[in-house]
Design a protein that fits this description.
10 helices, single chain, mainly alpha
């Protein structure tokens, strides 16, 4: 995955701020150039188009997500359920810190006309599925989770529940407490699958 220049990161941060304040529909090269005091031609030297900026944002989020989740400190003997809680807590905290990324990830309606953007959103979802699936598989193998439902279906149920929680938070204008509600949803699912809990 490519490295971004400081100027590209500045442009992506400004795009994030604009999306956060005015919505993804209001992101234009003209508005963005004004926001950071660049001319439009100068901005085009860093990104070819608005979609190129959105693609950059998604790539940047994937890089950040891999690093963040890869660096989670899990003491020896951490239960599978606790590991899953930490993965989601990390993700929900990232969304809370930068709510605009949720607007970008949840903009499939706009993206389905652009293969590269919809593929990038799929990559984020696949990555989360891999983290959750690996956790469920490990939890089932070690006898911490019930094997009543297979790991793939269980991963889909967990991700679906969390996605709904994030979407409700987005639609509320970020007024609800995403971390608290996410913990409650995940806690409820873990109660159903964890053994001896």
């Amino acid at each position: 995955m490519k490295k971004f220049t400081d100027r590209q990161i500045e442009i992506m941060e400004a795009a994030t701020a604009r999306i956060d304040t005015y919505g993804i529909q209001n992101l234009t090269i003209k508005n963005l150039a004004t926001d950071i005091g660049l001319s439009e031609p100068a901005l085009y030297r860093h990104f070819k188009s608005k979609n190129d900026i959105l693609l950059g944002l998604l790539n940047y989020f994937i890089m950040e997500m891999k690093t963040r989740i890869g660096n989670l400190s899990l003491p020896l003997g951490t239960s599978a359920g606790e590991e899953l809680r930490r993965i989601f807590n990390s993700q929900l905290q990232a969304f809370t810190n930068k709510p605009a990324i949720v607007s970008v990830i949840f903009a499939e309606g706009i993206f389905h006309f652009d293969g590269s953007l919809s593929n990038k959103v799929s990559e984020i979802m696949d990555l989360m599925h891999q983290y959750v699936y690996a956790n469920i598989e490990k939890g089932q193998e070690t006898g911490q989770y019930s094997k009543l439902i297979n790991a793939s279906t269980l991963s889909t149920i967990i991700l679906g529940g969390m996605r709904m929680t994030v979407l409700k938070w987005k639609l509320s204008g970020h007024k609800s407490n995403l971390i608290k509600e996410g913990k409650a949803v995940l806690g409820g699912i873990l109660k159903m699958i964890e053994k001896n809990s």
